[in-house]
Structure formats: structure tokens, C-alpha cells
Amino acid sequence: MKNFFLYQQLLVALVSTYKYEGSRINDVAVRSKAIKLGIAINRHGEKKKLFKDEETVRILATRSKPHLKAVFKCYKETFNKNIEEDLDEPSLKDTIYCLYAPPMYFSKILDSAMKANANENEKEVIAEEYNNRYGTPLTKKIEDVALGNYKDFLVTLVERAG
């Protein structure tokens, strides 16, 4: 339960901390952050819970997506493997994956959702629960926020489920 609250703190930091979203990247800072992440991951030869590490949380929560992409690329160049290969925590792997490759991450989640063995009744219950929880039908929300082919794709999936 303690790890859940620590992970929750990471997620809150990710969504509430100011991030510079410009394209400027400082190569010295990128290398420094990559090395700090490597040290945190491999501290004393043991895997540790990275969301307990304040420096890791700060790096993930305050750096822009272009900066994080550069940090993860530098990590790979420095340690000869992708950062997610060094992580034991699935939730942190997903967080990092989502930060630097959202389209790939969401396609993975969508694929997992489509493989789920939810029967038609369960799909209807899910749509009802969404409506109860957020006060709007799922298809209406998709139509309001999604665009183009992506919107058409999601609406089609939801309508077929209903």
C-alpha cells in the first residue's frame, strides 16, 4: 500500500508540475539527467523503487517531452540499453513509455483492451459506468475531444461494443 501512495505522488507530480515545453535542449543537462537516472536505477547493484527517489520524480515531472526523449536516448547510449529494460516496476515502465512515446503506449493499451474477454454485457456496463462517473456518454465525450480518423475509430469501437 505504501508503494501505491509513492506511485500516486509521482503521478500527481507529473500532472501538476510546470514543464518547459519548448524545443530547446541543454546537452549537458541531458547527459547529467541520464547519468542520475542510471545511478538511481542501479544504486548498489540493486533495483530500487524509482518512484521513491526524489531526483527521479523531479526529472520525470519537470522536464519537457523533447528533453526526456533526449535523456532516454542518452541513457541508451551511455548504458547500452533502453531505460525500460533496466526497470523492474511495470507501472514506472508504463509511465516512462507514455511520456516519450504516447502513440505507441496508447496503441499498446488499446490492443490490450481489445484482447480482453469482456462479453457484450460487460461492455454495456462499462459504458454505463463511464456515463455515471463522468456524467456524459462515452461516445459523446469522444466526439467532443477527439479529431478526424482517430475520433471515427474510437466512436466505431464504442458503438460496436454497445
Commentary on this structure:
This protein is mainly alpha-helical and 162 residues long. It is built from 9 helices and no strands. The longest helix is centred in the first third of the chain and has 15 residues, at 2-16. The chain is elongated. The mean pLDDT is 78.
Salient structural properties:
single chain; 162 residues; mainly alpha; 9 helices; 72% helix
Summarize the structure.
The protein has helices at about 1-15, 25-40, 55-60, 65-80, 90-100, 100-115, 120-135, 140-145, 150-160.
> Gap between N and C termini, in Å?
35 Å
Q: What is the C-alpha radius of gyration, as a whole number of Å?
A: 19 Å
Q: What is the percentage of strand-forming residues?
A: under 5%
Order of helices and strands: HHHHHHHHH
Count of separate DSSP helical elements? 9
Largest sheet data: none
Enumerate the spans where pLDDT stays under 50 for 5 or more consecutive residues.
none
Instruction: Based on Cα principal axes, name the global outline.
Output: elongated
- By helix and strand content, what is the structural category? mainly alpha
> What is the residue-mean pLDDT, rounded to a whole number?
78
Helix content: over 70%
Number of strands: 0
